[in-house]
Structures are given as C-alpha cells and as structure tokens.
Amino acid sequence: MSRRHAVSALAAASLLAALTPSQAEDAPLFPRLNCARQMNDPADDAKYTLSGTGATAVKRPSDTSVDPIDILNVSLRSNADVLEAYIGVKDATKPFATWETAYSWDVTFENADGAKFSVKHMVTSAQYEQVGGVKPTSWAEYPMAGYTTAAGTGGASFKNVKARVQNNFVIISVPMSEVQLGFSEPIRQGITTVTKVAATSYAYIPSGTGNQRIADTPATTASYVFGDEYCFGPPPAALSALTLPNVQFSDTVKLSAKLTTEAGDKLAGKQVEFAVDGLAAPLKGTTNADGVVSVSFKPTSRAGTYPVVAFFKGDATNGKTMLAGEVNVLAENTGFGALSVAKPTTTTRRVTATLLDDDKHAVAGQKVVWYVNGKKATTQTTNTKGQVVYTAAKPGQTVYAAFVAVAGKYNAATAKAVKV
Ligand SMILES: [Ca+2]
Ligand SMILES: [Ca+2]
Q1: Which residues of 268-397 form beta strands (DSSP E)?
Q2: Cα separation of 91 and 379, whole Å?
Q3: What's the gap in Å between 332 CA and the centre of ligand 2?
Q4: For the chain, which has fewer Cβ within 10 Å, the N-terminal or C-terminal residue?
C-alpha cells in the first residue's frame, strides 16, 4: 500500500509555513529600484500643463533641484491583514509639499474564480479640491496635516485606507478584509492576482493668473500575485539542483540542493532547511564552498511520495527562496543468507536464519516463521543481528524460514530450505 501525496503550491506553502512561521512575517522594508516585477517608470518625465489666462511655466514654487512628484516605480505587497501599494516617488516629501496635491492608484483585482473588480483611489493633500478647479484662496489655508482618500469605484469601495510617506515612497494601505469584499471566494496568496496596477501623481501650482499642473502618469502597468515579495528587500537567493533520490524505508539518503545568488554566484556557509512531509522537524544543513547543501533523510513514514520544500530564510544581502519537489519512499528489500545448521547433539539440530536488507544491514524486531517439513512450526522475532534461532529441529527434517512483508516498509523474503 502506498500513500500518494499530491504536490501542489498549497502543499508546499503549508510545509513552508510549518518551517519558519516567524520568518515568513519578517518584512523587508522597501522595494528595490528597477526591480523587474514592479511597474518601473523613467525619472524626470513628469508632464506640465498650463491652464488659465496668463499662466506661465514655473516649474514649482521653490526648490527646482528636485521633482517630488516624479513616479519611479509601483510595487504591491500583501499579507493576511493588509495590501499595500508602494508608489516610489523621487524625493517624496513628508508632509506633502504645498503644491503636491495627490497620488492615485488604479488597480484591477482578479481572483482564482475569474471574478474581477477595479478600484481607483487617491491619496490627497488638503488642497486636493483644486483638482476640481477650486483654487484655494491661500495655500496657507491648507495645512498639510495628514492625508485623505477619495472613495473607490468598481466592485468594492475601500473605506479604511491609510497612507503614509516613508523613504521616498507614498504607501497606500488597505485592509485585506476590504479587498475581500470584491470577491466571492477567499483571496489566496500566490493565486489571487492584480492584473493591473497604475499610478499617477498630481501637482497644481498657481502660476500667473492660471494654474500649472504637473502630472506623472506612467504609460506602463504591472501585474502582481498576492504574496509575491520579490521586489522587497535584497534580491532573492536561488535554489537549484534539488536532488531527492528514491530511498528505501530503512535506509538513509542524502537530499541536496545548491544555493546561489540571483545572479548565479555560489553562496557558502548558509543554512538551508529541508521540510519533508511527515517529518516532525525540518532537516538543516549548511552550504559548502560550492554552495551545495546536503542533509541525511531517513524515512519515518511508509512507502509513498512525499512533498519536500528546500528553504533559505535569507539574510541582509540575499532574500529568502524556496524550491519544492518530492521524494519517493520505497519498501525495503530483504533476504536471508544460507541457513546455518549446528549439531548440539546427535538427535538435535539448531538452525539460525539471518534477515538482512539489501544493504546487508540486520533487520531487527521482525517476525519470522519457521517451517518444518512444509508445515508452520513456530514464529520468532529477529534480534538486533536480524537473527532467529530454531532449536527444535531433528536430523533429517527439511527446514526453512519465511518473512512476511510489512506493507510499505519491508518486502517479503524466504530462506532456501535445508535438510538438517
Ligand atoms: Ca517618472
Ligand atoms: Ca536498502
């Protein structure tokens, strides 16, 4: 009998959760510049628009050395509680500058069942009214305390959105419970996607008797899978060459993998964990000079196919990574050598059988049946040497021993009969 385990992303994810529950929550702080999986936008491409009679192009009220509304990238991240959009803005100021009016995001979510909904959202400073054409009488009337948000549109309207500016990112934060409102089934990390994320920045500057509007609307959008933190923290390390040889039930095998940087440079002296379904704790090993790590695996479960996840938790310069596979556990082959016959007296014979596996290791603690002249005589249990001794044989009898298979653990074996 074998137990078949389906290896799926979910199985791997649950194994991974069992591995390092705390590390999974460790949040690298900010996205990397020019990460391949985020929306990247050129620097210094904010567009100017003049409106109103007499408007003149003034780059901004002050400080012409920076372009604080210039969007550089947008990344999303999520966990069970919150979805956050990191809008990377060159020299974003906190609080927003007086003429810095709004940052918007525009997202389309798609769940595994195909359900979609879209939300447009704005984080604004107090002078956001000017977007509607209402020019504040004085900038001083609009202290830049805090941020407000406009209502969402589409399948869900987010009400409890927060925003903050940190490390040149405008970070929009939405409770996952509100994102969930747009879906008929649970959002699943690794499965639910954002098929479009876009962002725009706006600034309105009084200029002459008109206004000068500055906006940066990146032409590209990006997609995102819930739970993917590829762009946060250092570039992830890479595991490869996951080697999971078949192993017989009572044997030990080496499981191995190779750890490198994302660029392919080997990483030595790093701990890698192997979680094997059915084992109480992950197996831990350290990479050698070639970046190769190997651990000894001795099955504790009967024959079957078991998911395995190799996991590197990451460090300051290389992010976490994992690689999933499966290992096949097979029943051990057994066999008897030639029966050994001793003659304690002229009328008694002593027959010893030794049960070994196919690596010539003793198979201890297993039941062996003795047959005399074709009939079952007695059952004994192998000792630590794999031996059973039948002392009641008489000269002239035909004797043999048989081991019945133990499902999923040991295959059967029968000793060659001897005339004692
Ligand atoms: Ca830009
Ligand atoms: Ca073996």
Answers
A1: 271-276, 283-286, 292-297, 304-312, 321-330, 334-336, 340-345, 348-357, 367-372, 375-381, 387-393
A2: 83
A3: 5
A4: N
Cα 42 to ligand 1 centre (Å):
4
30 C-alpha to ligand 1 centroid (Å): 18
Residue-level pLDDT at 153: 39
Ligand found nearest the CA of 359: 2
Beta-bridge partners for 330: 248
Q: Which residues of the chain have pLDDT under 70?
A: 1-28, 50-68, 93-101, 121-122, 124-159, 205-212
How far is the centre of ligand 1, averaged over its atoms, from the C-alpha of 40 (Å)?
Answer: 8
Task: Give the number of whichever ligand sits closest to the CA of residue 357.
Answer: 2
Ligand 1 ion: Cβ-proximal residues, 5 Å cutoff:
41, 45, 70-71, 216
C-beta of residue 235 within 8 angstroms of C-beta of residue 202: no
- The candidate with the shortest Cα–Cα distance to 100, out of 31, 43, 46, 158, is 46
Residues in contact with 62: Cβ distance below 8 Å, sequence separation at least 6, in sequence order: none
The residues, any chain, with a CB within 8 Å of residue 256's CB and separated by 6 or more, are 241, 242, 243, 292, 293, 294, 295
Q: How far is the CA of 74 from the centre of ligand 1 (A)?
A: 11
Nearest listed ligand to the Cα of residue 44: 1
- Position 67 scores a pLDDT of 58
d(CA 267, CA 286): 10
Distance CA 143, CA 262 (A): 46
Closest CA to 44 of 167, 199, 214, 175: 214
Question: How far, in Å, is the centroid of ligand 1 from the Cα of 84?
Answer: 20
314-342 burial, b at 16+ Cβ within 10 Å, e below that, comes to beeebbbbbbbbbbebbbbbbbbeebebe
pTM comes to 0.63
For 192, the 3-state DSSP assignment is coil
Compute the distance from residue 119 Cα to the ligand 1 centre, in Å: 22
